[in-house]
Structure formats: structure tokens, C-alpha cells
Amino acid sequence: MGCFSSKKTKYTPGYEEPTVLASETSFSVSEVEALYELFKKLSRSIIDDGLIHKEEFQFALFRNRNKKNLFVDRIFDLFDIKRNGVVDFGEFVRSLSIFHPDAPVSEKIAFAFKLYDLRQTGFIERDELKEMVVALLHESDLILSEDYVETIVDKTYTDADTKGDGRIDQEEWKEFVLKNPSLIKNMTLPYLKDITLAFPSFVLNSEVPDSE
Amino acid sequence: GNLNAFDIISLSPGFDLSGLFEEK
Q: How would you label A2-22 residue by residue, b for 16+ Cβ within 10 Å and e otherwise?
């Protein structure tokens, strides 16, 4: 039997080189390395397999693995780019990059559209919008009358559905967001600017000198 | 006012990903 003394780090499945991920996203190499520390922690929280499962995502956000939330489900599904039910490191970094304060607004607008296009028809349909409003009211224990919900949805369609065909397409969505920038406020996480401060342990594991 | 349905939806805590970064 040989004695192997390797310093090579064991990476999680779906690991990609920080230099590659940094070149394709809004993150620096150091930030990608810090995100790897976070990713390892999240991906081992319930099922120790180096991949983020929906339960782990929910647990991180709500401290409750069974708490159902329509919007967390949608965000997880969009993070799961390969659509295999789990989020690997590459998917995690590429998806979080959209939430970076420096990410292009066009990416944020496109991501929000996909989020709201629940059934992925390429349009935000009126019944999808109503379903999301009802879900939000339900999860917040807020009560609004059916008539009032209808009025709000109608008003939104009057403003956003400029072509008047009863659904919001990507072009209409973009125009609507540019008129109402607060609609993509959720697509920016200021925290991502400080990710290297939040996870300083990446410095110990860094294999790439950061030229930035 | 100018409240629209998307403003209401955006109030969901499901959008707040900052929980991912909090120490467990």
C-alpha cells in the first residue's frame, strides 16, 4: 500500500475553476472563492453531498426545511440551470451573479421575467399574476377582498400590457420595469459586494493569487 | 395610489436571499 499525502483539495461535484467563473460573471476570483466557502456550508447542511437541494435552500432562508414558498421554489428552479433538481457550484455562482450590484440591469430584468412567468410560456399571464398576489397575501396573512385583488391586477395590466393582448411579454416587461425600477429591487443583493469579508476563510484555501 | 401587483408580490420574504449569507 502506498502512502498518499496529497494536498489536493477535494472539490464538490460541479466545481468549476474560480478564474473561469470570475471571467463569466460579475464576481472577482476572490469573491468566487469566498462563495465556495458559503456553497460548501449550504450544500452540506442537510444532505452531505456537495450539492444544494431545495430543502437546504429553504432551510437557509427560513430555518425550516418544510416551509413552502412559491417564490423560493421559483428562484431555486431558476438557479437549477441544468434542471436536475439540485444546484451545483457553477450554477450557484452564475445565478447569484445576477443579484450582484454590478450585474447588468438587463440580466436582472430578464431573470425577474422568468421568475414571474410561472408556467414558462414566455408571457406573464393574468392568472399567473393573480396566483402570485394570492400566494403573497396568504403567506403574509394579509387579507384583501377578491374584488380588490382583481382591481389591482386589472390596473397592473392596464399599465403594463401596452399591446392589450391580455398578457405581458418580455418587451412590455422591460418597458414597465424601466418606468418602475423598484420592481427589480429584489434582484440586487448589496451583501454580495462584501462576500469576501463575510467568508474570510477562503483566503486560507485560495490557490489563485488575486490580481485585482 | 400607484400600487401595482408586482410591488405586492415583491414583499414576499421568499425574495430575500440574504438568509443564505447568515451564519447558521
A: eeeeeeeeeebebbbebeebb
Residue B17 to chain A, least CA–CA distance (Å): 7
Q: Which residue has better confidence, A141 or A91?
A: A91
Q: A86, A52 in Cβ contact below 8 A?
A: yes
Is A139 a residue whose pLDDT tops 90? Answer: no
The tens digit of pLDDT for each residue in A8-40 reads 567 888 899 999 999 999 999 999 999 999 999
Smallest Cβ distance to A69: which of B11, B14, B21?
A: B14
Amino acid letter at A105?
Answer: V
Q: Give, to the nearest 10 degrees, the angle between helix A29-43 and helix A54-62.
A: 100
The answer to whether residue A144 scores a pLDDT higher than 80 is: yes
Q: Between A45, A70, A116, which is nearest B14 by CB?
A: A70
A interface with B, Cβ–Cβ < 8 A, is 38, 41-42, 45, 57, 60-62, 69-72, 75, 96, 99, 116, 129-130, 132-133, 135-137, 139-140, 152-153, 155-156, 159-160, 180, 182-183, 185-186, 189, 191, 195, 198
Task: Check CB contact under 8 Å for A38 and B7.
Answer: no
Question: What's residue B21's pLDDT?
Answer: 86
Please indicate if any CB of chain A lies within 8 Å of the CB of B1.
Answer: no
